[in-house]
Design brief:
Length: about 170
């Protein structure tokens, strides 16, 4: 299964505030531009996320990934788990091996930074799509929190938007 880390980050490399907030992204959400999100989302078969991202999504008025199977990486138990969501306490490599026989071809790793670093450390991210937002947060949740080894990436595409957002797409290896 191909895993894509599709994420927005501040220019200084944070995907959320220290509390996990993403309200700073609201100024970039307009009805005019979705930064390729709809096409990307239509092309994925599954969603992967960490527990803090999951908790943030639970605060939305409705579950945003109701039409896709979703796996949440966590050792905790949650009081509320929407239909189609499976909470797993295993490594990314273990889950991908278990899902290998399914029809799933492409998964979206939506966050967070620690989970993304874990996927990257195991060489499991095939593509990185990072929208660099013209904002400096100063601190927060890093894009890859705790990455332990260098990985060379190949730039596939760079797209500049009128509001200053730069979307970079890299393939691994």
């Amino acid at each position: 299964m191909d895993v894509t880390y599709y994420v927005a980050a501040s220019l200084d490399g944070y995907i959320a505030t220290p509390e996990g907030g993403t309200a700073w992204l609201k100024v970039f959400e307009t009805g005019h531009e979705d930064y390729g999100y709809a096409a990307f989302y239509a092309g994925v078969d599954a969603v992967f996320m960490g527990s803090r991202t999951f908790e943030a999504c639970l605060r939305f008025p409705r579950w945003p990934y109701a039409d896709k199977p979703c796996w949440v990486f966590s050792s905790r138990r949650f009081e509320r788990v929407p239909p189609g969501v499976t909470v797993v306490n295993e490594t990314p490599a273990q889950l991908l091996a278990r899902l290998e026989s399914r029809w799933l071809k492409r998964a979206w790793l939506t966050g967070g930074g620690k989970l993304a670093a874990s996927f990257a450390a195991q060489g499991l991210i095939r593509e990185y799509v990072v929208s660099i937002m013209p904002v400096l947060l100063g601190r927060g949740v890093p894009l890859l929190d705790g990455i332990s080894m260098p990985e060379e990436l190949n730039l596939v595409d760079a797209r500049r938007f009128a509001n200053g957002v730069m979307q970079l797409r890299y393939s691994a290896g």
